[in-house]
Amino acid sequence: MSQIKEITPQQVEDKMNNNDDFTIIDVREDEEVSQGMVPNAKHIRLGDIPEKIESLPKDQEYVMICRSGRRSMNAAEFMKERGFGNVQNMEGGMLKWQGELVF
């Protein structure tokens, strides 16, 4: 069983609307991201996570996103193992996202 908390797409949208201080990381591949991303999300492909997270502050809150929630859960678990204390996974991924998209 994973140690990662899951957050619903609606909760992510609520956090965005409340201007909460958190970072969304989209771990999908380039061609998936070209179909639309959550506004203000950072795109870091899953395969790039090990090298790219070195530059991310560990005390920030992160919400990980992919297409269905599986790859982002793997990324969240990897980050947690590397000392990131506040990492959540968006349940259901972009398949469940009802909010605005940016291209």
Automatic annotation (TrEMBL):
Pfam families assigned to the protein according to its UniProt record, in alphabetical order: Rhodanese (PF00581)
InterPro entries assigned: GlpE_sulfurtransferase, Rhodanese-like_dom, Rhodanese-like_dom_sf
Record-linked SUPFAM superfamilies: Rhodanese/Cell cycle control phosphatase
Domain Rhodanese: 18-102
TM ranges: none
Protein name: Rhodanese domain-containing protein
Species this chain originates from: Halobacillus faecis
Phylogenetic lineage: Bacteria, Bacillati, Bacillota, Bacilli, Bacillales
